[in-house]
Amino acid sequence: MSPAPWLVFGVGNPSRGDDALGPAFVERAQLLLAPDVREGRLELLTDFQLQIEHALDLKGRQHVVFVDASLRARAPFEYTRLAPARDATHTTHAMSPEAVLDTYREIVGPPPDSWLLAIRGERFELGEELSPAARANLEAALAFFVGDGFSAATS
Amino acid sequence: MSFPLEKAEDPSKLRRIAIDPVSRVEGHGKVTILLDEHHKVHQVRLHIVEFRGFERFIQGRPYWEVPVMVQRLCGICPVSHQLAASKALDFVVGARTPTRTAEKVRRLMHYGQILQSHALHFYHLSSPDLLLGFDSDVAKRNLVGVLAAYPEIARQGVMLRKFGQEVIRVTAGKRVHGTGSIPGGVNKSVSLAERDELLAPMKDVLEWARTGVRLIAELHGKNRETYDHFGTVRSNLMSLVGHDGKLDLYDGVLRARDADGAILFDGVDPQDYLARFEENVHSWSYMKFPFIGALGPDLGWYKVGPLARIQNCDSIGTPLAEAARQELLATSPGKIIHAPLASHWARLIELLHAAEVIRALLDDPDLQGTNLVTSGPRATVGVGIIEAPRGTLIHHYEVDAQDLVTMCNLIVSTTHNNQAMNEAIREVARQYLDGHEPTEGLLNHIEVAIRAFDPCLSCATHALGKMPLAVEIVDAKGELVRRLVRQLEPVA
């Protein structure tokens, strides 16, 4: 079976406050876009952090969206196109999306069209829930992606 | 008492180098080095910020939630925490002997974790140093540099990692946050279709694992002087061994040897671990320093992890890994190997062993069994010990009559290795830094020694913008002399 053309990859730890934004996005999108998931147009994956083997999850995709909490992004979120890049996260346990794309380029070839949905987070402590600000930012990001990012691109 | 190079006599007259945080190490590690005007080293310390909030995070939760919740302590070895917690809570639910299916599914999961973690550490985090050189161009000293110079090796590393993750997915039920292992057993077996899916790449996996062992043996052989002496410090060793004395990373009894290999204790039931260990504290580190109580803090510190394990056991029960172990032991006949760089060889031997164990387990019909959970008279206390990729991992819980966890004590592998890592970097500082102007390449030598222990204190929080890396050199007056910043933001 060929992989779904769209991959949404939520990154983060559900038990570390706003770091849960990536997995929370995936959980909600799984429901909101259930028909697309069921019919094989979209796959949603999540993990604590990005690693080298995640490059292989990109194989056969046309579009990839990494969803991550960010302290840098302006609220509520930023949606930016990604390009493969070599950075020092190549040498850590947690790679950047750009480094994953670069690994893909080295192992497989030109990576698929890839985007970063960086949702603004504020607090990242163990055992905390999503902060109120992060919840609002998550809703805005979901509304954007379901309305414009994904649906507009696939309709 | 303090150890040599642990404490400078007059720090105010010395300049300070901070490697903060140490790269290619999970969690936030920092090294400080105090030098005089002639670059003579007076003090070296590794500080790692430990999240003591982990225990509080668990306390007050129902015990059955714990194997899932503890996975969120660490994004690097969640399976080890899941299994250590499950093993501890087996005692609470009275499942002292889980069913054959439960034990074998858990073992499969654990060896999948060992395989993928060791693959990540060697191919991704350490091979850049070992293949390209400790002081090679920092811009190329990474996986991409290895991909360019050794594409097939790097590809095999990625594929090994992926295979290990697939073993975890099949046994845990999901790629992450798996619920496969529970107090008393497991909640799923391995279907024939899942077994066949894992069997398909098995031949390649075994061959890649053998290639890895050959590679590290060659690297060692080409540079014996460095591999044998780089940061080498003698210490005691400690690990689980199987009830038969063979290497067993999932279950067994505690054994410790002294630096010459003599047995210090053996056959210690994990439930009795508290009687053997004590912990020391230093004002300069958040992380405790465990030691063997009977020997005291100065003589009782020890190493855990692959190099300790393969020398602490009597043998390895799988033929390829045992042959590889004998080859490594033959480099130091009759003597314990203490060289940190030999850890990489030991790690790849364990990776090969994990591949052999997985191969054998996949033929076992117990994996398709339906008797998944057992129980018995309830207890209020349970201890679970497992050999996680980086070393001995201890989970200890007390549970009240309302099923809530009232006490949780976790001792992770990196804490066991705290003193050993500090001693290793002090030795490297003596060997390489003393009397030399510190350069990025020389400072990387310190990091190479730390990385050999594969320390992990994951916060599993990696949000974009939260990972600054800088090296600062400050003179005796506290003024910044030099600042090196490692770029973590992507560069096109």
Walk me through the structure.
The complex is a heterodimer of chains A (155) and B (492). Chain A has one domain (6-154): Rossmann fold, CATH 3.40.50. Chain A is built from four helices and five strands; from the N terminus they run E-H-H-E-E-E-H-E-H. Chain A has helices at residues 21-32, 34-38, 97-107, 132-154, and strands at 6-11, 42-47, 63-70, 77-81, 113-120. In chain A, strands 2-1-3-5-4 form a five-stranded mixed β-sheet. With 492 residues, chain B is α+β, with helices and mostly antiparallel strands. Chain B has three domains: 11-49 and 437-485, no CATH class; 98-232 and 339-373, Cytochrome-c3 Hydrogenase, chain B; 234-338, no CATH class. Chain B is 40% helix and 18% strand. Chain B has helices spanning 53-58, 66-69, 78-92, 100-132, 143-149, 151-172, 192-199, 202-222, 224-229, 296-299, 306-312, 319-329, 342-362, 413-416, 418-433, 440-452; strands at residues 15-20, 29-35, 41-48, 181-182, 185-186, 236-241, 253-257, 263-268, 277-280, 289-292, 302-303, 381-388, 391-399, 405-411, 470-474, 480-485. In chain B, strand 4 and strand 5 (185-186) form a beta hairpin. The longest helix of chain B is centred in the N-terminal third of the chain and has 33 residues, at 100-132. Chain B is globular. The model of chain B is unreliable at 458-471 and 485-492 (pLDDT under 50). At the A-B interface, strand 2, strand 3 and helix 3 of A face helix 1, helix 4, helix 5 and helix 6 of B.
